[in-house]
Amino acid sequence: KVGMNVQDLSKLLHRDTAEIIKKLFLLGIVTNQNQSLDEDTIEILAADYGIEAKQKEEEDLADIDRFFDDEKVNEENLEPRAPVVTIMGHVDHGKTTLLDYLRKTNVTEGEAGGITQHIGAYQARLDGRLITFLDTPGHAAFTEMRARGANVTDITVLVVAADDGVQPQTIEAINHAKAAGTPVIVAVNKIDKEGANPDQVMNQLMAYDLVPEEYGGSTIFVKISAKFGQNVDQLLEMILLEADVLELKADPTVPARGSVIEARLDKGRGPVSTVLVQQGTLHVGDPVVVGNTYGRIRTMQNENGQDLDEAKPATPVQITGLNAVPAAGDRFVVMADEKSARAAGEEREKRAREEVRNSSSVVTLDTLFNTM
Ligand code: GDP
Ligand code: MG
């Protein structure tokens, strides 16, 4: 181990310090018990005792991405989890209307007395099964999260108004879903409207490889009216069907990790963040590293303002207890203790600052170049 001194080494080898010092002296190295030894010296000395000294590979605590490896979950502990759905589509095609309808009619149990709050995500329920909706439908949020490496969406619901057809942001949404590799379910919306032409939407989308089953393709289309709730349950059914195909699973037994959906600074409560748990179970009191900050989960609430003690995979929760405001798309991981959470968080903050400094010098050069 780097930085090990004679005393540490003698303890490790179960020898007297005096004996070690003598041996080192015979090797031509003059030391005292507090002197730290370099790797080579330790190796030579250990070899003399017939022991192979190997430097333990330092774990980079700040590298929280390594916690996301699937290898770190136990195959035997995998349990089905709720699908995470993002709704996308052209402006005014009915994304917000659909999200609002779902929230009103399919909210989860026990919300009585709770105050619905917009925390960036919520869970809807159909036949006792949960579906997690991210309710920041902006394409920018989706791209920003993906740019930060957060691939939280399992299924994209593409809303296309039947009276308007495929529009620029419809195509943009298709491209985002393709880039993210998520299956697309098409919700042909506003079928209640006069002049609605769902068949035309289906025809248009074929040019983008979204071919309905009745035309020999594999894309699910549901004709809905988000405003009146027509066929919305059918849409949920289709989402669950798609989820079954994807066999979404997670291990609730490992230390929790996931991604930030949104975050802000609250005057009274400090940094408030909505996180989506992706593996493991998050508990109140857990020490966490989040993006470039850290903390200990002080409170945890669902979208109905209810306090929770724990949150299982695919559950969105609003948390407090962080030292700073993270960014949407930042990853979080629960650490073994508060000390390592702090160390990792501070190291990540430092590295981020260095990165900014390095990139800003590039910008300066660039700017200089452009003004020449
Ligand atoms: P967004 O921009 O995609 O979020 O679209 P909104 O949900 O804000 O909807 C835009 C407009 O379309 C609003 O005036 C909605 O009331 C209306 N709208 C949304 N869904 C439907 C629908 O199914 N039927 C009808 N008639 N109007 C709808
Ligand atoms: Mg909207």
From TrEMBL:
GTP binds at residues 89-96, 135-139, 189-192. Residues 80-249 form the Tr-type G domain. Residues 83-231 are annotated as: G-domain. It is found in: Cytoplasm. One of the essential components for the initiation of protein synthesis. Protects formylmethionyl-tRNA from spontaneous hydrolysis and promotes its binding to the 30S ribosomal subunits. Also involved in the hydrolysis of GTP during the formation of the 70S ribosomal complex. Belongs to the TRAFAC class translation factor GTPase superfamily. Classic translation factor GTPase family. IF-2 subfamily. This is Translation initiation factor IF-2. It comes from Fructobacillus fructosus. The gene is infB. The chain holds residues 244 to 615 of 822 of the full protein.
